[in-house]
Amino acid sequence: MTLEVLRWDPGRDGELSEASLRRKLEALGYRCTRFDYPPGTFFARHTHGVDKMDAVLSGRFLIRVAGKSVILGPGDMLAVPAGLAHSAEVLSAEPVVSLDGVAG
Asked: Which residue in 6, 47, 75, 78 has a CA-CA distance of 20 to 30 Å to 18?
């Protein structure tokens, strides 16, 4: 399994902000909710019943899927298909500000 991180491109996407990241996710077909996760936050292995897109506005977020790991930083997005077991952890000393995109 390949973890394909979509990276923010300032030349194409403009300046990274909550509003611009939200617009990009909505253009991809996701409804967004903002979450602020403090340092040390850990989500044990779990699944979701819907396709999701995890997008990071600030901080560093480690996601583990199928024995592979990826670190998301500002402007990074990762699709997490429905039913795919994964875990997540805040790596940074500052909170992770995330837009949680749900397909549909």
From this structure: 47
